[in-house]
Amino acid sequence: MYKTFPFLLKNNWVLLILVITVFMLGVINGVYYFDQLNGSEDLNTTPGVIPLLVNNLVACFLISSGFFTFGLTSIIYLFTNGMILGESIVNKSDYSTIEILLLILPHGVFEIPALLLSGVIGFKSISFLIQYFTNKKVDTFIKSYFLNIALLSLIVILLVIVGGVIETYLTPLFDVERI
Predict the structure, then answer these.
(1) Going by C-beta distance under 8 Å and a sequence separation of 6 or more, which residues neighbour residue 145?
(2) 124 contact partners, CB below 8 Å, separation of at least 6
(3) Which of 26, 8, 37, 41 has the alpha carbon at shortest distance from 117?
(4) Confidence of residue 37 (pLDDT cuts 50, 70, 90)
(5) Which residues lie below 8 Å from residue 171, measured CB to CB, with a gap of 6+?
(6) Residue 178: predicted pLDDT
(7) Would you list the DSSP string of 83-118?
(8) Structure-model confidence comparison of residues 52 and 47, the more confident one
(9) Does residue 90 contact residue 31 with C-beta atoms inside 8 Å?
(10) Of 18, 20, 36, 124, which sits most exposed with the smallest number of CB within 10 A?
């Protein structure tokens, strides 16, 4: 399994760069166009780990659903999630940089890669068409292609579970407004 993850990254690096770009454009947009008067609500308002996991898995599913729209819904949901992150950062601008990092990083190191890998899945249909028409060994290609998607999906689910548990039980310890 330890050899599988680097292999997945190597096979999907172009899609990963595209996904990171869309997400970061959303973050920049969220920071730049944040409405200071209206602000935004505290985003971690879920009552427990299960509703949070469901919410995060739905977000990843919506991003992955770009597979059926040739990446269109992936672009929309990645950009939107990036904007939410950017707005959240600005919304906590009265916090120190360390406090903001402590509120984002513990669970963000798992959830953000889950969102990005979901975006890779969402763009896979485009790469599928390109490789399908240029690959001579179609049977072998299709098997490895869907194995690739299954492994990415498994990694996404694991990242969301770990991130959700951390967000529910660890991240609130760093929120000075809740203390």
Answers:
(1) 124, 128, 131
(2) 15, 67, 145, 148, 149
(3) 8
(4) very low
(5) 44, 102, 103, 106, 107
(6) 55
(7) HHHHHHHHHTTTS-HHHHHHHHHHHHHHHHHHHHHH
(8) 52
(9) yes
(10) 36
